[in-house]
Design a protein that fits this description.
Elements lengths: L1 H13 L17 E2 L1 H12 L5 H12 L3 H19 L23 E2 H10 L5 H12 L6 E2 L1 H17 L4 H15 L7 E2 H9 L2 H6 L4 H8 L6 E6 L18 E6 L5 E2 L27 E3 L4 E2 L7 E2 L4 E4 L5 E3 L25 E3 L4 H6 L6 E3 L9 E5 L7 H12 L5 E3 L6 H6 L7 E6 L1 H12 L11 E5 L5 H5 L11 H10 L1 E14 L13 E2 L2 E5 H15 L7 H18 L9 E5 L2 E2 L10 E5 L32 H4 L11 E6 L2 H9 L6 E6 L1 E6 L3 E5 L2 E5 L2 E15 L7 H15 L1
Length: 745
């Protein structure tokens, strides 16, 4: 980019008097250029002669449009030019070659914004772009920005703000305060060093200059339809031409994923581009209905309560109420967001972060947008979806939640990590988090939450929509063993009634004995569910290797379970981890555990929750004892009498240690033929020393570990949401009774 930045600055110099070769095309006030000067500019910048129609398109996109539209149309025109240079067809059909008369007398475009827009479209670091802007507005080239030159930069930022439809009256003094703060020595002028240092530490400045393109593009699309091809099972009508949707293989058309505005593919060009706004220019308490023509029969929510025929009424995107056109005046303009208001974060409570003066003083804003707590009794829901989990279920869940809630609440983890969503919700003290994915996805989100500085007791609790294979944490917290296309409204209702519970998390530190030994890096340094060594990790490692090699064979939850069964059978025959006690030493709360007593072990597992391997309880049910206690006891690991009555608890700051005899035993526990694995300890610290390479796994993620020393200690407790206890059916009671009888035999 250094070459591009120098080219732009040098080009600007060629228009400056007295020696610039293009100075004759510059206006008297040295601010604008004519079409001929623009032609010379384009040829030098792109290094090629362009077709006249593309040059006209580029020029007119910058001259004819208002300032608020330039940023969009100019970027599209530039893309078309670059595609033409690369031998591709222009992608924009909205920007047609100019058909107006070819005389450009009197038509001029501003030179400095032209250079700035070209610089922001380059793929480069903000630091380099800031340097370009500095040189562009440093008119006298003295290495400093004086008051007049800073005013030019402020006008550039106000142009971007007007394009985003922000409140420029409120924004202008904030921008001026930012620019004043950049002048670190308060001498009235800004040096290049001050400009770059201040610009790089102020996110709003980067955005308003157009440099933080990810956030700017995200905001730019707000209010625009997001079209997706859909097949409809019920009669549906086009919102544009009002005729029925019919296509090959049934009723199909394009539907907006944000507001369900529907149209034929041929009608999309004429569709009204008036989708929902997901945030506001400023915070306010009142949300108005977003009415859309009702293209399906419904019932009126007004007093008449009668049926509404197709296109005889309106539907609100937020509250899903329907009303006849004639009944609309009888309905309050204020929208209460309907049945899901407990979970929805209204767009009125999301607004640009730099509109808060306190954020300007902090010189850093993590997100361009910030959210605040609604006043009424709600807990907005932050949703993270891993669309790669659960086959195609994740993608469907993502799209449904985007429509049911505010799309700003829903994040696709395949595109961005959890951090943007967590930062947006950081100032909402009463909210919930929903993670849609497997155990690994949950761990990812919990790790990201550890990095957010929450106020005491204000960390939001986490609920789970299980989309993985094992889903052990979801089972433990009563969210089920897997999502089976249940009604998402019902799931949201269950979250509303769920209760918080604190869950232990454990720090694991692995020190390899010889750095020269080759192995895999551990996947995590935190244990949320379990950690194991030996037979079960060997099966999981084989599964992981096979899935990496043949991903097409592992595309459903049922197939994954069949593969686990086959690999478990292979491990039973090979017994790769037999005589485990000869190669492992283990200390629990400083006390050595003798692994050689009793039956030979092929694995050990440390349990934080009551579910492992997709629903197995290795600790088992504790026998009732009048002297039993749930609280820690000194050296409880050796007191077998105490261990038999110890209860496993997700939040007691204790971890359970069990021994595994074989893959067959694991299958027997899963089938209910055996009650549990061998209890070894219940303790708060564990130290393990291995003398050879072993397969290991943390929360279902396996790896091969060379000889090492492992230390496991308590890290923290995090709030989770536990689902309601489901009513047990008579069949399940009969099944449990039958299993208990078989076990006793």
């Amino acid at each position: 980019f250094a070459d591009s930045s120098h080219k732009l600055v040098d080009l600007l110099g060629e228009f400056q008097p007295p020696d610039g070769i293009f100075v004759k095309h510059l206006s008297e006030d040295q601010q604008t250029i004519d079409f001929e000067g623009f032609q010379h500019f384009v040829v030098v910048y792109f290094g090629a002669d362009l077709p006249i129609d593309l040059v006209e398109q580029l020029f007119m996109s910058f001259s004819k449009q208002t300032k608020e539209r330039r940023l969009s149309t100019f970027e599209e025109a530039i893309t078309n030019v670059r595609n033409k240079l690369n031998g591709l067809n222009p992608i924009s059909e909205r920007l047609k070659p100019c058909t107006e008369e070819k005389s450009y007398e009197g038509v001029r475009i501003p030179l400095k914004p032209l250079v700035c827009y070209l610089s922001l479209l380059e793929a480069a670091s903000p630091e380099n772009k800031l340097e370009v802007v500095f040189h562009v507005y440093d008119s006298d080239a003295n290495g400093f920005l004086d008051k007049a030159e800073i005013e030019g930069i402020i006008e550039q930022m106000m142009t971007v703000a007007r394009y985003q439809h922000w409140d420029t009256i409120e924004l202008e003094p904030i921008i001026r305060q930012m620019m004043s703060d950049i002048d670190l020595d308060a001498d009235g002028i800004v040096s290049l060093e001050e400009w770059k240092r201040g610009g790089l530490s102020t996110v709003p400045l980067l955005v308003l200059l157009g440099f933080d393109t990810l956030q700017l593009d995200d905001l730019k699309e707000d209010g625009a339809h997001v079209w997706r091809l859909r097949h409809f099972s019920k009669p549906t009508y086009c919102n544009v031409c009002c005729s029925a949707l019919v296509g090959w293989g049934g009723k199909q058309g394009l539907s907006c994923g944000m507001c369900k505005y529907t149209a034929h593919e041929r009608c999309v060009r004429n569709a009204t581009n008036r989708c929902i706004r997901t945030f506001s220019a400023r915070q306010c308490e009142r949300l108005s209905h977003h009415w859309i023509d009702a293209n399906a029969p419904s019932k009126c929510a007004a007093k008449c309560g009668t049926s509404i025929s197709v296109f005889q009424g309106k539907r609100c995107r937020w509250c899903d109420r329907h009303a006849h056109n004639k009944c609309l005046p009888a309905i309050s303009d204020a929208c209460d967001m309907g049945e899901l208001k407990y979970h929805i974060l209204p767009p009125t409570h999301i607004f640009p972060a730099f509109l808060e003066r306190k954020n300007v003083q902090q010189h850093h804003v993590a997100n361009l947008l910030q959210a605040v707590q609604p006043r009424f009794n709600t807990r907005p829901l932050l949703v993270f979806v891993n669309p790669k989990s659960g086959g195609r279920q994740g993608q469907k869940v993502l799209r449904k939640f985007e429509y049911m809630l505010n799309p700003r609440q829903v994040y696709d983890l395949s595109k961005v990590g959890p951090e943007p969503g967590l930062n947006l919700f950081a100032n909402i003290p009463n909210c919930n988090v929903l993670v849609c994915g497997g155990d690994g996805t949950i761990g990812w989100v919990l790790d990201a939450m550890d990095k957010i500085e929450y106020e005491p007791n204000k960390r939001p609790p986490v609920a789970i929509l299980p989309l993985g294979t094992g889903n052990d944490l979801a089972r433990c917290l009563r969210w089920g063993g897997g999502y089976e296309n249940e009604n998402l409204n019902k799931i949201l209702h269950n979250i509303e009634k769920a209760l918080p519970i604190y869950m232990d998390r454990w720090q694991i530190k692995i020190e390899q004995k010889k750095k020269s030994d080759k192995g895999d890096p551990p996947p995590y340094n935190i244990i949320n569910n379990y950690f194991s060594i030996g037979v079960d990790a060997s099966i999981a490692h084989r599964f992981h290797v096979m899935r990496e090699k043949y991903p097409e064979k592992f595309n459903s939850r049922m197939r994954n379970k069949l593969w686990y069964f086959e690999l478990g059978t292979t491990e039973t025959l090979s017994s790769t981890c037999k005589n485990l006690h000869e190669q492992i030493d283990i200390l629990c709360d400083g006390e050595t555990i003798d692994l050689g007593q009793g039956s030979t072990l092929e694995g050990i597992a440390l349990l934080n929750i009551t579910s492992i391997y997709g629903g197995s309880n290795l600790w088992g049910t504790s026998r009732k004892s009048s002297g039993a206690s749930r609280f820690p006891m000194p050296f409880a690991s050796t007191a077998n009498g105490h261990l038999s009555s110890r209860v496993q608890d997700i939040g007691d700051k204790l971890v359970e240690v069990v021994g595994l005899e074989s893959a067959i035993q694991m299958g027997q526990i899963k089938a209910g033929v055996r009650a549990a694995a061998r209890r070894l300890s219940q303790c708060s610290t564990v130290v393990i020393q291995t003398h050879k390479a072993f397969p290991m796994q943390i929360d279902g993620e396996p790896w091969m570990q060379p000889p090492c020393i492992i230390q496991i200690t308590h890290k923290n407790q995090v709030p989770m949401l536990i689902g309601e206890t489901k009513t047990t059916s008579s069949w399940n009671l009969l099944k449990k009774s039958s299993t208990a009888s078989t076990t006793s035999l």
